[in-house]
Input
Amino acid sequence: MLLTRIMKRVLAGAALSLFMGETRADYALNMPRGVTPLSQDIYDLHMLIFWICCVIGVIVFGAMFWSILQHRKSTGAVAAKFHHSTKAEIVWTIIPVLILVAMAVPATRTLVRIEQAGDADITIKVTGNQWKWRYDYVNPGFGLDGGFGFFSVLKDDSNQARQVRSGIDPRTVEHYLLDVDKPLVVPVNTKIRFLTTASDVVHAWWVPALGWKRDSIPGYINESWAIIQEPGTYRGQCAELCGKDHAYMPIVVKAVTQDEYFDFIGEQMVAAASESAGADREWNKDELMEKGGQVYNTFCVACHQANGQGLPPAFPPLAGGAISTGPVDGHIERVMNGKAGTTMAAFGPQLGDVDLAAVITYERNSFGNSTGDIVQPAAIRAVRK
Amino acid sequence: MSQAVAHGHDDHSHLPAGWKRWLFTTNHKDIGTLYLSFALIMFFIGGAMAMIIRLELLEPGVQYVDPTFFNSMTTMHALVMIFGVVMPGTVGFANWLIPMMIGSPDMALPRMNNWSFWILPFAFTLLLGSLFLPGGGPAGGWTMYPPLMLQTGFALPFVIFAVHFLGASSIMGSINIIATIFNMRAPGMTFMRLPLFVWTWLITSFLLIATIPVLAGAVTMLLTDKYFGTSFFNAAGGGDPVLFQHVFWFFGHPEVYILILPSFGIVSQILPTFSRKPLFGYESMVYATASIAFLSFFVWAHHMFTVGMPLAGELFFMYATMSIAVPTGVKVFNWVATMWRGSMTFETPMLWAISFVVLFTIGGFSGLMLGITPADFQYHDTYFVVAHFHYVLVTGAVFGMIGGVYYWLPKWTGHMYDETLGKIHFWVSVISVNLLFFPQHFLGLAGMPRRIPDYAVQFTEWNQISSIGGFVFGASQLIFLYLIIRCIRGGAKATDQVWEGAHGLEWTLPSPPPYHSFTTPPQVTDAVAHS
Amino acid sequence: MSAPHGGYYLPDPSHWPILGSIGLFSIFLGSATWLNGASAGGLIIGFGIAVFLFMLFGWFGTVIRESVTGTYNHQVDVSFRWGMFWFIVSEVMFFGGFFGALFYSRILSVQWLGGAGDGFATHQFLWPDFVPDWPMTVMPDPSKWTVYREVIPAIGVPLLNTIILVSSSFTVTFGHWALKKGNRRAQSWWLFVTLALGFTFVGIQATEYVHAYHELGLTLHSGIYGTTFFMLTGFHGLHVTIGATMLTVIWLRSLSGHFTPENHFGFEAVAWYWHFVDVVWLFLFTFVYWL
Ligand code: HEA
Ligand code: HEA
Ligand code: CUA
Ligand SMILES: [Cu+2]
Output
């Protein structure tokens, strides 16, 4: 039963771990040293305070265990009578103070450095959403202006494996829970300023290799910075409880050479331009349904589920829903403005006109809904005005 | 109402019997027993939730519970353990022991004492009941941060009112303890002769009175933000989600000392007894406890270093946090000095007390590391924090309480417990608890966030070790339960003094003590107090 | 009734506390149900209030009976005093939390939203049109909140209320002096004046609320200014109401001669509470209305 099932799983896990050593190559006991000046300062600070604590521990516990061995009644020890010593007490007040001062000095130095986010070359705005990150290159650097941005969500193979009792062994998924569809791409050896904020609840953006995490708080912006010294892929996770899928909003930062980065922003700007051109034309139903399916599976599926049945009562079904089969305007309104006090976010500011038009069309014509309505990007634009 | 009866010493035949005795009692021992039994039951409930957490974390992937339920287990586990186990448990000790230790017949306000206890079952009905509402229980963590907490469905007002209700109980309990200590001491029992346990509870009561109302305020703000259109935590109206965190942690940090100080007191009673040597540095212990309590009001923001405070704030809270290591260190050194050149024996209470000193200190060290702001930018919200607070809470607060149960159980019941079983309980627990929580340090440092039902594959092994340690630790508490029940039922008769090295007024009373501990105040001399 | 016990006073078992718990439990359960939109909540609340009031009458009735029959000794009196004192301290901390929220939002968060200090990027990217001021006449996101035209000026009705409440602190003290001199008539008279002033204060506050809601457009929904304004003054008003009700009880007891110059803790406890309510108001007047 349960117990044997657990035992089996543990044994299987242990066996697997013997054979699949490679997939867990980044396995570690300690904090990574990281790839930015800050992360290395922090690592050194961490090791310093760690060793200080170890030494104090050895002394205190050593004295205690020596006493336990020597001063036991069974060996005939007779209790001494002393019950205080002002001298000793002063000593063991002063010495810890000195040790603490010794820790505080490098800590202060590092902290002051961390808080200097000014004169960066690149500024990226990071927005936490339930449960995906959005990256806006508000200042992509290299004298370019006009930003672009995109969402970054858990990669599909992880997403399938992570479903309750999916039957897929996470050990067979590469970078399980730590991979995204579209990573954040940044250049190495460049000072990057990160502006973290959120659209719904508090999240925290954390890539251990960069050395810090920062809360992303709705309505406020926090600033932090990094200079990545080595090209590579650095992974992290959301580090503030943000609801059901808190475990499933990973962060992947791809640090590339400055040339590669330059190519990347070029591509992104072209894509952004064609996207906004798309909003000006008429779309036919098939196009909208296809696009809408993609959008739905990226943004809506977590709550309303692939079959549109939702997870009542927390997340209502869209199949046969009062709004998703009611008047179109009500549907557009709900998706664009969300509903305050629930997890249903306002998607108006998050998605473009095409995406919104497509996903609404999709919802009205899927899961058994057959309103036949087609919503054009122009209709969304009209509402925005 | 009964007639005025001239009470004979042990004549309480006019008292109601059966369930009425427990429901209506105004007796500090009955109420103490109620508190302790309640805490024990809640320990198994909160522990069962922890077992669900550990079961789900046995392996990557989501096998047993869905993520929302997992989060509500985490939330409820913490609320139950803190508000249902450690707080009532330590109040139970206070009820049983303070009157006996200061030489009085009962608490100062016995009727209110009954009320403080009899709020708890009702409040927990509200809290635990919310798990069965459509949409499930609260799942925003025990820290209840908005805006996430405001997304809670039906459960939200239940949780908030439960917190209000529990707060009322705590405030009345601490008022009672303060009034008792100020006003009911036997002649000659000056403040500087109070047993350390009494001191720690006096200081804990001040902390409670100063912070619980602030928590009540914080959750009230959540309530009005959700239902009455206020904008405390909404930037669009000029508020700030971080405001909640400030108000919450103004309560929350002193709260952790509320949880630990009584256990400090218990350990300070146990160590001298089995070292057969007076507590080292009594006065500095008192001052250190007071300093810890005082400082605890100025460190709250170390829980929120990553919210993006101004640099000056980060520095202030870092320095203040570090400074708490000094008085805590004084306590640890004094405990070691108490054992030093004693004549030690190692009965079960002593074993728990010694492991408390070691393991609490380990938890303190990780606390200190967390207090270093830049390092906390890495540690925050990872399993390193989980490891830290379980070392101070489980192997600290809870171990202190378990040690205290072994120490005073013979006094309370009049029977000796089974020493062999007690030692087995200790050794199984102390080994498994380290298997359970030590690997969590590694997990946190290697990057595993807390409050997740599922994790990246490289964290598997340590999680499995932790889970297995957890199951063994949980199972070993069944030994404890069995031992207590057996000891209440019978066993070798306990003497008045029980332990060879025990000193203090409670050991001058018979085991079990009479219904009204001291009906005529004993005269306390320096020799009685400080031997 | 209970008996002194070898020099100590120890009450008999009592069924009042458990009734109190049942009452409070029903009030909380009912309120939670009501907030979740079920109308049955109201009934449960009503039941809870009835039980709770019954408990209050019964419990205090017992205490008063014990007190006037001289069951209490000096030690009990001191315990009651400590009890009341620390209860008031806890009330102070409750208000402290809300004052903290006021100072935090006024001094920090509103300024950050407006771009001061660390709020530079917050202002630039999220709330570029927001101009911080206090009272905050424009919300960061005006679409979500009721915009108000004016706030209540300090010099006016609030000042009048200050005068009323401060005078009532004096009148209650005159009553206390009269009590200590054994002048029962003066004592009851001063108590009556105090409670009348208290209820007048509450009445004036209530009309001010109506005025704010209907004429000024200042409501709980008016962003953080309206929030802190109504929450602070509201909780204070609630405390004044409780205090004035307790004064009424004390007045009735005083009329039936419950207090003696030596033994009148009930009177003092209410007087302390009343002073506390008064001091809180002085802070409110200063920080909510005036500065
Ligand atoms: C009993 C409860 C308890 C106790 C006693 C403590 C004690 C301490 N705690 Fe802990 N803490 C918690 C319970 C507790 N904590 C909980 C529950 C949380 C998590 C809450 C949540 O988020 O859910 C938490 C989280 C927490 C954080 C936030 C981490 C984060 O979220 O990022 C921090 C940061 O500073 C911290 C610091 C400390 C410090 C400095 C102490 C100090 O008091 C420790 C002092 C002791 C020693 C240092 C050891 C003995 C001293 C010596 C031997 C002297 C010599 C030593 C030196 C000079 C180094 N704690
Ligand atoms: C005093 C407080 C206290 C105590 C005693 C404990 C005790 C335990 N805690 Fe607790 N824990 C907290 C306070 C406490 N915890 C807090 C504050 C949090 C943070 C919550 C948050 O993030 O919001 C937390 C979070 C927390 C987590 C992190 C969850 C997450 O981040 O998602 C984990 C995971 O391992 C955990 C495990 C345990 C375990 C295994 C025990 C064990 O010690 C429990 C042992 C007891 C028993 C198991 C019960 C006895 C036995 C039975 C029920 C019999 C049946 C059992 C078997 C046969 C196996 N706790
Ligand atoms: Cu986003 Cu956790
Ligand atoms: Cu803390």
